[in-house]
Structures are given as C-alpha cells and as structure tokens.
C-alpha cells in the first residue's frame, strides 16, 4: 500500500513529558484519515509535527514520499488548518485569500471566487474579517487550506463553530475533494458520529500513542450488529430468551435488551415478547457506532 504520511517510533517531548510516545502512523494515499482521541491525547501535536511546525525528538516521519518529512516542496502541495485560524482582520475575506495565494505562488484569481462559493462565503467575500462570526472564520480557514488544490489536507477540528448545515456542507466538500480530486485528508475531531460519516480510515489516539489504525469498513465488518428491544419487563424478557437458548444478549437499565444473536430476525423477537404478554415499545437492528468502538479500544476511563 502507498502511504501519504508514514511514521515510526515518533517521539515529541515537552520537558520530561512525552506528548508523543513512540508513535507509528500509516495514512494511505487518497484516504480520509480520521484521527480521534480524548483531549490531551496528542492529536494537535502530531498534526503540527507532520506539518513540521514543531521538530520531533525521535523516530522517522515521511510525508508525500519525502523521507525527511515536510519540506518546502511538500508544503506547496499541502493545505492545513491547525488550531485557531489567524487572519488580517482589517482586510476582507477575499483580500486574505489573495495574500495567501501570492505567498504560496498560486496566481489563479478565478480560483478565489470558486473557493469562496464552495465554503458559502460569496456574499461575505468583501466584508472585513473582524466582522465575521466564528463559523465564518472557520469556513474562511478551510477555504485558505484548499486554495492551492492540495494533495494533502491536514485539518484539526475543522467543523468547530459550524452549525449543522455548515457541518453537512463541509462534509460534502471534503468527500468531493477526496473522491474527485484525489486529495488525502487527515482530519482530527471529537465528533465521532461525524467521523463515522466521513472517514475511510480511523486512527485512535490516547496518551501520545496510536492504539489502533483500521479502515472504517473493517471496523463495521468486525463489529456485530445487534437487535435492540425496549420492553416493560426486563426480567421476563431475559427469562424468555434464556429458555430458548439465546444467551448472547445484554440488559440495559432503561428497559432495553440488546440481543447479539443475529440468527433470529426482529419478527421472531417481536412475536416472542408480544405473545408472552410483554409490552414492546421499540425493536430494531442497530449497527455498532464508532463511538462504541472507540470506548472499547480506549476504555471508559479516559
């Protein structure tokens, strides 16, 4: 497999503390790599290291085929949004993008209008950035990151401050960049449900280490679906299941029983409960979420 970013035994220290602790990372080319983990896991530090904004203290980090990491050639092929975006607040959004284009040696003026339209800022293009809302600043930062049509796009919590409509539009934009332009995207987020919709690959990070890297489709394949039923009498429901040799289930406090034995369908369990005088409030098949998988890997106590 070809990798856009490849690292082994990466170490970053602040004082005596290893913020990144002998970490390995494998980001496949043309993937959307979701980097997830609790606050303080080291996600932002890792993204800064990939961008060469901070030096690493040990290990190897290859970016876009360069064994030495992020150099000037690689930087020209990369867009990024890491932490709070800074702009010339007294200038307009469009003027800020003009300045960035000149700095990057990218002189396609038509592209600026296209990008502003992509992030839904056309109407606010000539407004001073100091008058932008937080959500508008975030969209402008994303516009700046994708201005040069990068091969690699690195985004640290890019949907912060966006409303639901803005989140949906950015998701569609990232998928378009990945599928139509071939852009590899590394995106960190604490919104696991969004990563479940967006990412092709997942890296789970905690305490400076990547605990697991896996294609999202493999996570879904390996984690069993379940039938969830809500009834009025959990004790009776469990007795009915056990009497029929169905032992792979879990009882939840709020009246739920989660059944992992998928050799029976929902109609079977519906008939079983109703025909034995149980009130059945809800029943259906539920796929395991990325959030559930995350807590299995990291543990409940983070």
The total strand number stands at 13
User: Regarding CATH, which class of the largest domain?
Assistant: Alpha Beta
Biggest β-sheet strands, sense, barrel:
6 strands, mixed
Work out the strand percent: 25-35%
State the end-to-end distance: 33 Å
- Whole-number mean pLDDT: 92
Count helical runs.
11
Give the CATH architecture of the largest domain.
3-Layer(aba) Sandwich
> Helix/strand/pairing class, anyone?
alpha/beta
Radius of gyration from the CA trace? 24 Å
How many structural domains does the protein architecture include?
2
Order of helices and strands: EEEHEHEHHHEHEHEEHEHEEHEH
Identify the CATH homologous superfamily of the largest domain: P-loop containing nucleotide triphosphate hydrolases
CATH topology of the largest domain: Rossmann fold
Strand order of the largest sheet: 5-6-7-3-8-9
Low-confidence stretches: none
Give the % helix. Answer: 25-40%
Overall shape: it is elongated
Secondary structure topology:
Layout: E1 3-14, E2 17-28, E3 32-36, H1 43-50, E4 58-63, H2 72-75, E5 78-81, H3 93-103, H4 109-118, H5 134-146, E6 152-156, H6 164-181, E7 184-188, H7 192-198, E8 201-206, E9 209-215, H8 216-222, E10 226-231, H9 234-243, E11 249-252, E12 256-259, H10 266-274, E13 280-286, H11 290-298
Parallel strand pairs: 3-7, 3-8, 5-6, 6-7
Antiparallel strand pairs: 1-2, 1-4, 8-9, 10-12, 10-13, 11-12
